[in-house]
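Hey, I'm writing a tutorial for new members on how sequence and structure tokens pair up, and I'd like a real worked example in the thread rather than a made-up one. If someone can provide the structure for the chain below, I'll link this post from the tutorial.
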Amino acid sequence: MAIYKPKILFFCSTESKGKHLDKYGIFYDIIKTDTLSEAVSIAFKELHALSAIIIDDAPDVDLFYVLSKFHSLDAFRTVPCIVRSDNQDAGYISKAFDLGIFDFFSTSMDFLVAKQKIAKIIELFKNKNQLEKIFNQQMLTISTQEVELKENQWNIIETLGQALESRDIESGNHCNRMKEIAETFAKYLSLKHPKYMITDATIKNISKVTPLHDIGKIAIPDRILLKPESAGRLTKEEFEIMKTHTIAGCLLIDSIPNFKESELYRFSYNICRHHHERWDGAGYPDHLKGMEIPIEAQIVALADVFDALLCKRVYKPSFTLEISRDMILNGECGAFNPDLLECLKVNADDIYKRIYENKNIL
């Protein structure tokens, strides 16, 4: 039985001659070309069959002209582009990312490391493309059948919320951890602080919609949402774009017919829009203060920060329980409701033992 090999378009100049190209051929079905017109033609005709595009940068190549040609085909939306180059100039690399590439490899990078990174990038895009395909199919089915949306629509947006973890390369099972943490916080407040009027139904609704907190990231460009560690932290401009996911999530929720009639709508909307607000008004997008922030959004905000600290991210290592708890209590992650900080103090150890301890997620 033939072993499946992902197909990669490898554009290498006559000068670079595709260094180490023979090694890649062991793992991938390589389409090699040193002619830009041929490379663009292949991308146009076989884009659906390609798993990646690798471009060898060389003195006889106008890299940005090459990238602009591929960019004009919208090729990089569904197929990741990797540039192999010895140019380490920050402005040069940044311009390449602006034109849609996914990663920038040094030609001196160890071959096995490069091979592993390419494999992960291909898998990531495969998952992302499949998610978009499923979403489009489901939305088309709903619009043509004109059915009552409540349960069907909820299944769609819940699936999107869970799948966003793989799209932005965060640690696995983030949504389920968030649900469990938020439910713990909500139960504690309902028992110890009745002023918040959190009922059993409220707890159930908060738990159910918690995975939607970042659903607006579906609208964030891949070059920002999927920005790899090798490209550095988000710039100020990129972070401003990233912050718009709070508004985008609400627009997505509002665009779903009949969802406003659901009891889950208010919780979904408030959590999407306000899970980055902070008790002192220093959050976004509306700079709400104190109890201007819906309690369900406050609960999810603290759960989100707690999980992010305990788990590894592309921009940071995982922190211990003690460090994570202290960072939140000391205000290093923004200001939170004192009642929620009390909730964290009381429940942090138990949450850690149930969800994180002795599990390969840190």
